[in-house]
TrEMBL record:
The lineage of its organism: Eukaryota, Metazoa, Ecdysozoa, Arthropoda, Chelicerata. It comes from Rhipicephalus sanguineus (Brown dog tick). Pfam families: C2-set_2 (PF08205), Ig_3 (PF13927). It is found in: Membrane. Residues 384-476 form the Fibronectin type-III domain. This is Sidestep protein.
Length: 630
């Protein structure tokens, strides 16, 4: 540190000559005397090797020529420029995340005047606007706060904090260094593999891709995408090895955009997208319309679309008629700029007779070759569409109703509804709808209707679906005005009284009938039940004595009393009855054929129309057997 020099001077007029001394506090310092030509006596103080503790030191020069007087003195205070002692970066972290703001401090101590702090990144000084500076209370500590956003490229660079004294240029500077560790998401790039001529990739060849990744920290996984979706969900002919993708025997379905995705602890990144163009034979468009309906002499505009690469395609049309003959129709050449490689040929075709209906075959050829399977398009004569399904009527009111059927309409189809009044046999409404739902209003109440629902394809309508319904009357819809509460209550009370009176009157009759029924034997009750059973329309036995009239000769199921063993009771069997004519002068008889029971076949029974017999329900088994012979 440079020496400090101070000089003191005493005038020559002083007698006796003065004694000049230097002191610091109470300590006397060594000095050197000089006398000028004018007789002025000078004392020079030399302080060598100044130290930091000399800052603010006070040096006093005293002159005295007698003990009788106070010595004359003067003092000087030492002011110094001090360089910084040290610089320290505080807030260092193990790593920083790219694209996220970070803050760091640098403290510089021991500078006077205060130190100037600057930040440097790999030898490049950072903008001072990024840092904020503050001083300590004593002024000898300067703190600089740096806020910055690290980038992936900053990984491994040095961040330096440098402190200098602005009044001591060229002197030593103090600094601290931080080696940055920046973590960032993978930086991914997709490139073609070796030996791939991407300008002429033909179906059946193998294609390779390389996924180039730069990541910190290390990778967790690498995945592949095709048209923005996971590769495994879209393709099957691929092999993944580390960061490479191999497509074996590519086909037209492999054409599209490929990318790779790399992920680490900081996140995932997707690479650039590479388009793979596979030149291939023409193939039919999956969305091609394959059926046309037409009437005779109706011109059709049939189109045939194929996916092809190259796009210069020639088409050939032929017809396999319904009569089994085949004929060529035309050649056509088309091209397109559709990125998907969709090429379309149009054919104007008019079926003039039955043999012109059949199958159209469309074949396409490009520079790769002829398509393997032609596109097949069916031309069929127009016919009625399928009728609507599961139709029902709902929401009937006095003047309106709703009709709904299930199922949606095919393209170009609509639905028709005819409403016919049943009694007057007239059409009262004719509606159409694109869906099988109709709302019919403004029709008379309390009227029966026949509804006809059709499907319509623009030319022919289907077989009708027949529905029968009616509109409601005022009473059925419940439009009567309710009465006051007291009137409703009185009506309920009257109803209860009427029911009670009816029960009181009916109970004696029920008791009498029960007594009379119990007085009869089981045979009487069974025999009476058999003879009073109604057998055929217009055939019955009255008063248990005779047949009132001869019925029509038809067969019907009925129940007939059949005699069991001697002394046994009569049982009821399922039989089939019919009248049998016995010739001139003979009586007709009612013949019954019992149905078989299990494996047993019963014989034939008949009942003679006995007009003179006594009571049919007689308890005499012999008389019953004469009338019912089996």
């Amino acid at each position: 540190m440079a020496a400090f020099i101070s000089r003191g001077a005493v005038g020559h007029s002083s007698k006796p000559e003065p004694r000049v001394t230097w002191r610091q506090g109470s300590a006397h310092l060594h000095h050197v005397f000089h006398r000028s030509e004018q007789g002025v006596k000078k004392a020079t103080l030399h302080v060598r090797s100044l130290r930091r503790d000399h800052l603010g030191a006070v040096f006093t020069c005293e002159a005295s020529n007698s003990n009788l007087t106070r010595p004359a003195s003067t003092s000087v205070t030492l002011t110094m420029n001090l360089k910084p002692v040290r610089a320290v970066i505080r807030g260092k972290q193990d790593f920083l995340s790219a694209e996220f703001r970070a803050e760091v401090e640098c403290e510089a101590e021991g500078s006077l005047p205060p130190a100037l702090v600057s930040w440097w990144l790999d030898g490049v000084r950072l903008n001072t606007s990024l840092a904020q500076t503050r001083l300590s209370a004593g002024g000898n500590v300067t703190t600089s706060l740096l806020g910055f956003v690290p980038r992936a490229r900053d990984n491994g660079r040095q961040l330096r904090c440098v402190a200098t004294n602005p009044r001591m240029p060229g002197h030593e500077e103090v600094a601290d260094v931080w080696l940055l560790q920046v973590h960032y998401k993978p930086r991914v790039s997709l490139a073609w593999g070796n030996r791939v001529n991407r300008s002429s990739i033909v179906q059946g060849t193998d294609v390779y891709f390389e996924c180039e990744v730069d990541a910190n920290p290390r990778l967790i996984e690498v995945s592949w995408r095709f048209e923005g979706h996971e590769l495994a969900s879209r393709l099957s002919n691929f092999i993944v090895s580390n960061q490479s993708l191999a497509l074996r025997g590519v086909q037209s379905s492999n054409s599209g955009h490929y990318s790779c995705v790399a992920a680490n602890a900081e996140g995932a990144s997707e690479s650039n997208r590479v388009f793979l163009r596979v030149q291939h034979l023409p193939v039919c468009d999956p969305n091609l319309r394959t059926k046309y309906t037409a009437a005779r002499q109706e011109e059709l505009r049939v189109h045939c679309s194929v996916l092809a690469d190259p796009w210069n395609v020639s088409f050939h049309w032929s017809l396999n008629g319904s009569a089994g003959h085949r004929r060529d129709l035309q050649w056509a050449v088309s091209s397109t700029t559709d990125p998907r490689g969709l090429v379309t040929s149009y054919l104007r075709y008019t079926p003039r007779n039955e043999s012109d209906f059949g199958t159209l075959s469309c074949s396409a050829r490009n520079a790769i070759g002829l398509m393997m399977r032609p596109c097949i398009i069916h031309v069929v004569p127009i016919g009625p569409p399928m009728p609507p399904q599961h139709c029902n009527v709902s929401n009937q009111t006095m003047g309106a109703l709703r009709v709904d059927c299930e199922g949606g309409a095919e393209p170009g189809h609509s639905f028709l509804l005819e409403v016919h009044e049943l009694q007057r046999r007239r059409l009262v409404a004719n509606l159409s709808s694109p869906t099988p739902s109709f709302w019919v209003d403004d029709v008379p109440p309390g009227t029966k209707y026949t509804l006809l629902v059709y499907s319509f394809n623009g030319r022919v309508r289907s077989e009708p679906v027949l529905l029968s319904t009616h509109t409601l009357t005022n009473a059925a819809q419940g439009f009567s005005e309710p009465g006051p509460p007291w009137l409703v209550s009185s009506n309920i009370l009257v109803s209860f009284l009427v029911v009670a009176v009816c029960l009181l009157v009916a109970i004696p009759f029920i008791v009498l009938i029960a007594i009379k029924y119990k007085s009869k034997t089981p045979e009487d009750r069974e025999d009476k039940q058999v003879h009073q059973e109604k057998h055929l329309p217009g055939i019955y036995i009255a008063n248990q004595r005779r047949l009132l009239r001869r019925p029509r000769p038809i067969f019907e199921k009925c129940l007939l009393g059949h005699g069991g063993p001697a002394g046994g009771r009569t049982s009821l069997l399922n039989v089939v009855l019919g009248w049998q004519h016995r010739g001139l002068g003979g009586d007709d008889r009612l013949v019954g054929w019992p149905r078989p029971t299990g494996n047993r076949q019963l014989g034939r029974c008949y009942v003679a129309p006995d007009r003179t017999a006594g009571r049919a329900g007689s308890r005499n088994p012999a008389r019953r057997r004469r009338r019912r012979r089996c």
